[in-house]
Design goal:
CATH architecture of the largest domain: 3-Layer(aba) Sandwich
Strand order of the largest sheet: 2-1-3-4-5
Structural class: alpha/beta
Bound molecules: CO-5-methoxybenzimidazolylcobamide
Helix content: 55-70%
CATH superfamily of the largest domain: Cobalamin-binding domain
Radius of gyration: 17 Å
Largest sheet: 5 strands, parallel
Number of helices: 9
CATH class of the largest domain: Alpha Beta
Shape: globular
Distance between the termini: 43 Å
Length: 207
């Protein structure tokens, strides 16, 4: 098995320390950080997601795999976001109220940083007023809103409405597995991105 296949397999077993060691090894071997992310970490997480869907694994297994994913991302982050440039703008990014998923949101944060933005990560389960307060406090040009559940994506509209009512000029950007461009149009957000790399392009287009 290749180092990236090993990494995916160990991530699925939740072996956080081993995943970190393999990320370090892959970087030392000169493998592109983006390739480590997609063919190692995300590949393992994708398989776990499919198994979760088919009830072949349950929440505890998904949780330990998610922890291993986070551990791997900690090692990969500096390589993914290195650039050493002055921030070209600021984005506030969070997961909507009621939603505890943060892996996709964290990836979006990394990609935005990689694209040269200062990112203020306001975490998970974030109420609409916190998005607005954080955007005001940090003079953000972009507000990134993530949701992974069909039951919580509706809370994105409350954030978009709160931003409009507050009168701030920050653009709202939404994304997450159940979110679509049609939903974005429906709730009046300024933009939708299907993945973290597109989110970075979209955020830059707002600056
Ligand atoms: Co959850 N979960 N989960 N879960 N979980 C899903 C989302 C689900 C699809 C699994 C399934 O049943 N097939 C399902 C939702 C079904 C639905 O709503 N239709 C589900 C469920 C039901 C639940 C619970 C209700 C389970 C339960 O308790 N019975 C519960 C809800 C808890 C809550 O939030 N209140 C729950 C809990 C959990 C864990 C805690 C165990 C864990 C989260 C750990 C964590 O995040 N720290 C978890 C996980 C890991 C998943 C799956 C398996 C993987 C999600 C993930 O991290 N994917 C997921 C199944 C799946 O998606 N296939 C599932 C990898 C990540 C990189 O992708 O987040 O999609 P993603 O992000 C992508 C894009 O969507 C996009 O860019 C990212 C990278 O390119 N993107 C953006 C994301 N945010 C963006 C923002 C942007 C732009 C792009 O702009 C701002």
């Amino acid at each position: 098995m290749s180092v990236l296949e090993d990494m995916a397999a160990l991530l699925m077993k939740g072996k956080a320390k081993d995943v970190q060691a393999l990320v370090e090894q892959a970087l030392a071997d000169g493998i592109e950080p983006q390739k480590i992310l997609t063919e190692g970490l995300l590949s393992g997480m994708g398989i776990i997601g499919e198994r979760f869907k088919k009830n072949e694994v349950y929440v505890p297994e998904v949780l330990i795999a998610a922890r291993a994913m986070k551990a791997g991302m900690e090692i990969l982050q500096p390589a993914l976001t290195s650039g050493g440039i002055e921030p070209r703008g600021t984005a506030v990014v969070g997961t909507v109220k009621g939603d505890l998923h943060d892996i996709g949101k964290n990836l979006v944060c990394m990609m935005l940083e990689g694209a040269g933005l200062k990112v203020v990560d306001i975490g998970i389960d974030v109420p609409p007023e916190t998005f607005v307060e954080a955007a005001k406090e940090n003079k953000a040009q972009v507000i990134g809103i993530s949701a992974l559940l069909t039951t919580t994506m509706t809370n994105m509209k409350a954030v978009v409405d709160a931003v409009k009512e507050s009168g701030i000029s920050a653009k709202t950007m939404i994304g997450g597995a159940p979110v679509t461009q049609a939903f974005c149009d429906e709730i009046g957000a300024d933009g939708y991105a299907p993945d973290a790399a597109s989110a970075a392009d979209l955020a830059v287009s707002f600056l």
